[in-house]
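## tool: complex_structure
## caller: assistant
## args:
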Amino acid sequence: MFQNFRLTMTWLHTWFGLVLGFVLMVAFFFGALSVFDREFDRWGIPQTRFEAQPLPSFDTLLRPVFESIEPSRESIDEMRGRVHGPMPEHFDTVRAWTLYTTHRDPVMRLNAIYEVPNARDPDDDVFGSRTIDPRSGAVVPDNQLRIGSQFFFPLHYSLQLHWLDLGEWLVGLAALAMLVALVSGVVMHRKLFRELFTFRPDKQLQRSTLDLHNLSGVAALPFHFMFAFTGLVIMAGVYFPVAHVQLEPLHEYYEKLEEQQTGLPHDRAGVAAPLASVDAMVAEARQRWAQRGASGDVGLLIVRHVGDANGYVSVFRAGTDRIGLLGEGIHFKASTGEVLYEEPPSSAVGGVTDFLVGLHLQHFRHWTLRWLYVFGGLLGAVCIATGFIFFIEKRKRQHARQGVSGARVVSALAVTFVTGMVIATLSLLVANRVLPESLTTRELFEQSSFWGAWLLALMHAFWRTGPVAQGQRTSAWSEQCWIIAVMAVLAVVLNWITTGDHLLHTLAVGYWPVAGIDLALLTTAAVAVLAANHLRRRAASPRARGAGVSEGDPAVGVAHV
Amino acid sequence: MAGSPGLSRGDAMKQQSAQGVVLGRIAAGVLGSYVLTWGAVALLIAALPSAGLSFEDAENLSGMLAILLYLAAFLWAFSALSLSRVWVVLAGGGAALAVTASLLQYVVLRSAGG
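## result:
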């Protein structure tokens, strides 16, 4: 497309980086927050603020809850249009019960998946879930948003844009753009670097923005590459569903073959059968893990073909002390409790896959590493944000002369996707503490506060970036920094007022899920104030006033938090 | 950024064709690479289980390689000299791989008596 490879890489870096950079900001920022998804859940749902619990008795406590679950209204609504004839009144055939838990989960979420007899696609299903306090079996109401695991985490990989799975595809393309940006960035870095970036009247700030862009990109290069790559690996089956489309017959053939090898029934027998003691099966699994020198807790429990003679129970060991999420699966016949199949050590490919997936989802216990993940993710956000700033600074005076609005639009979007995104996040936290707990549509209001605040930040950003069109500086950054500072402190204060869990208390008792988030919020406020002050000083200095230079710093400061 | 004022007609036409070139490259990079990668994934999934891997391993391995192949194909689509050659290799190659995979699937299922 261009005279040489390096120019092509530069073009790719600039334009794919810019266009998909906004999606990448969302992926990096909310990915960084998702590292502490369960801690955000605790902060937002105060009645779940207690220590992580071991798996309670299945037979006496979990089973009655599983049996009481019903398919959710949403999942039934989603199923409409995918059935022959009318929707069934009730769903009696339970395909599976599942429970996944980690060393950071005080409450447990029980899921049930049901067959839909008249579904067009026989593999389709409806599902329901219930969250319980495992100490008592009491049901935790589901009208409160699990801020971390239900909102930030899906936002990180799907943008909460579920129509046609558009969000997942956009994030996938953005992750690819990240890989492209890293490769092309390295190529550009060689020599062209200087020629490309010296045309600048206000050399100093541009230089420093670019330096930071390069530094945050290069310093965490392996992190950025691995996260974009492993994210794509996790989603590879979504992006390339070859085995479920073109090769579905082959897939079924191998599944049947596997069924013969493992003895785990693929389908129901159609004959009713009771469920033996699952507690005994869990005890047996633990004993076998201990014999293998891998004592551990249950991470995943699945009962398949519930109530059927072909039913079986799968018990997987939690990967608390490993990279891989789960392992050492042992499968029991549901009606008798006898071991059907004990999984052998994973194959080479299986081991690599578990490693890559576990590396990304990090359910292991290692708090230092967990924080490094956060900083890595925020460093990625800094890298992208400084890329935006650089793009704007490079063009804004030229665009001003030509009367083109490009730099202004990018500037407004950059504000929206840096400080605006933080404001939206804080707005969700504030709404979470203000809304009454009895509100049935609470979840909806919490989410609306997020999107509403983000929209307002966008409007503010477009309104206040007018000067950029004249090649001048915008005050949007510093104004949004002040909003961040106020809202972050407000969130901490509201948490104190509504729950009584102020920092002195949470720190004294060492309850880190809430103390950590409160401290992070206060740090956010402090950095936002520093950034706003820094911007004010810059705006006041005569040099800056003439040259219009203060795009960069707030992005850097805020994204760091 | 498009449509700067004060361009001559010749410049405008040049800019338009430049935009066409860019769009052509983007289409090749995004869609063409997808076709090629789909074909490669299909062939790997169809072939690897016959070479002794489990089906799941074949799926996982092809998924990992898919990402790297897509990245390489994408970069190449922008840097190769001839756009038509890019399309021949990406779309043609992808189709050929996919057809081979389907044939292989047919053979495997046939020999299994399915």
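## assistant note: Residues 1-6 of chain B have pLDDT under 50 and may be disordered. Residues 9-47 of chain B form the longest helix (39 residues). Handing back to user.
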